[in-house]
Amino acid sequence: DAKTTQPTSMDCAEGRAANLPCNHSTISGNEYVYWYRQIHSQGPQYIIHGLKNNETNEMASLIITEDRKSSTLILPHATLRDTAVYYCIVRVDPNNAGNMLTFGGGTRLMVKP
Amino acid sequence: GAVVSQHPSWVICKSGTSVKIECRSLDFQATTMFWYRQFPKQSLMLMATSNEGSKATYEQGVEKDKFLINHASLTLSTLTVTSAHPEDSSFYICSARDTNRGYNEQFFGPGTRLTVL
Q1: Residues A53-102: pLDDT tens digits?
Q2: Residues 4-63 (A) with a CB less than 8 A from some CB of B
Q3: A43 near A74, Cβ under 8 Å?
Q4: Nearest CB to A43; choose among B32, B43, B93
Q5: Looking at beta carbons, which residues of chain A come within 8 Å of B21?
Q6: Closest to A93 in 3D by CA, of A28, A5, A37, A3
Q7: What is the pLDDT of residues B62-90, one digit of tens each?
């Protein structure tokens, strides 16, 4: 699976949009971009994933650049409860039963009042 | 989403004892479960992949005789830390794939914090 690079930490004001970047310049054509987050002392939580098109769900939006070498996770209106470590993960073929998740360092997002 | 539970949520034990951690998929079947370990201020590290009815696959550097994994049913996998030592103190997290939803859906348990004195 391709390696990802994320900033170590970010701050965001409550109510504002949080934009979390991820660089995955070595991504290959069959690799998906996944985002998970982990609130302190809890298990990771799935947020969103995509291949090449932008995606949106009730939690967030995922913007993938045209060359797919980077992506941005957008939390449109961050709340204090969004404070967590956000992991960007690139993985091949999600329908492969043997394909586990490999976590990098993630970005520690601190939402401040 | 599907729910994965872990038991216990935390445990403190003496050095040399064994500790069993359970991972259950509450409302779905999971042929594959994963066990991760997370040390303070570090990311999750995959320890092993647990497949129902067969032997687990361990990641490099993880001792299979120390971390015993049993996946006897489609809703339960157990991790037993044998002869635990203080360096085994960590946050242990399991995840499970919902067989019926497709393999891109992976749900995590809340984690078990193990402290070995």
Answers
A1: 999 999 999 999 999 999 999 999 999 999 999 999 998 765 654 567 88
A2: 32, 38, 41-46, 49
A3: no
A4: B93
A5: none
A6: A28
A7: 999 999 999 889 899 999 999 999 999 99
